[in-house]
Design goal:
Blueprint (H helix, E strand, L loop, with lengths): L1 E4 L1 H10 L4 H19 L4 E5 L3 H15 L4 E5 L9 E5 L11 H12 L4 E4 L21 E5 L2 E2 H4 L4 H4 L1 E5 L10 E3 L22 E5 L7 H12 L4 E7 L3 H7 L4 E5 L11 H8 L5 E4 L7 H13 L4 E3 L16 E3 L3 H8 L3 H6 L1 H12 L2 E4 L4 E4 L5 E4 L11 H14 L4 H18 L11 H9 L10
Length: 464
Amino acid sequence: MIPLLTAEETRRAEDAHAGPMDELMDRAGRAVAELVLEQYPGRVAVVCGKGNNGGDGRVAADALRRAGRDVTVIEQFGELDDPDVIVDALLGIGLQDAPREDVARMIERINADAAPVVAVDVPSGVNASTGEVPGAAVDAAATVTFGAAKVGLAVAPGRFRAGRVHVRPIGLEPAGHEHALVPAEVLEEVPRKGRGSTKYRAGSVLVVGGAPGLTGAPMLTATAAFRADAGYVTVGVPESTLPVFEAGLLEAVKRPLPEDASGRLLPRAADAIAEAAERASAVAIGPGLGRTEGTRDLVRLLLERLEHPLVLDADALYGLVPFRRSAPTVLTPHTGELARLLGVAARHVDAHRLASVREAAARFGATVLLKGPDTLVAAPGGGVLVAAYGEPALATAGTGDVLTGVIAAFLAKGMEVRIAAAAGAVAHGIASRLVQPSVGAVASDLFPAIQRALAGEGWDPPLQ
């Protein structure tokens, strides 16, 4: 895992540095200057604040002048005078609240200029420890950060202000970190089929869902589990929808379940589901399940009765109340679903993604995966893993059902719950990068791309 540092963890690393602070500042400033020289020609405006971040900016300005660049240094406030590139060294990692009004006006002036912005360590206005943006914040084309990436560069909304992130060594060694970025190499941890494998040992998944009109969701989940290398997949579905699954899902075994007059599963389906789960090593509940009192009661019964690793998605999250179970459990909400689970507005979750996913993990005693381009995976009492591979191709119906199937397959293979969830998000995200063309892509386009991702394609660094 790749360390993601908070502001406090960064300060501890700086305190542990054996040399003087001026040495670190000199290296940081020169690293910024090197990037500007490599990628951004022309006149440079360096906007410097009062703290260490401003010191880094002044060092960068001196280095750029020595290299022959025309450089203007602006000490906190002033006119930019039409530069070709702006270096943002205004606030740095110390921000906790919204910038003061005068600083906010300078940030707005930077954003209004047409020149690209290179941010020093983090874009001014972004909370380095959380990714929150409590007020005005710089929109950077690139960020040069030192020693290790900061949490706020990987977690939205700060992630969307950072541009391309460049991590430069300056002699800092992290003294510890709570959160981490998940690299593509996590997929090397996914158990592969070997000579002695059977379809059950390779991972057996049971998918429960599929109300009338919603049958596509469990089909996507089941197929994704196969593409993620599960050996055996069963779908438990309302009896009336069985012909749809027989016609559209060739490889999976089908199990008809008792339903109500609307085709939604009844609580008494728990007996048949428990029986079907006897040969499964993981269970996915929720894709296309439907939302009735009966389906909510069914989910509650399954949480109590099943001892398997579970993935709860989509309709299984509707009306979910805190529970406790000893077996691994993964919840996979999107922003709106997590907001309902926490009883807050969706905009609150969007503004406080890190805090929200950690609160949900603590409240439900489960691993919680908050979907997004910065998919976050939190477990009770632990740090957060960030899987930052998601692309716009995932913004289409059904991709969440695909992710559920991938995670269920990885759990069925015996992976530790938090790593299974994070690896599933990475495989899913890399697959979205491999889908070409991405315009007009649909969820099923991810299937061959998942296979390619597991075979080692698209393993680029996560922050790009």
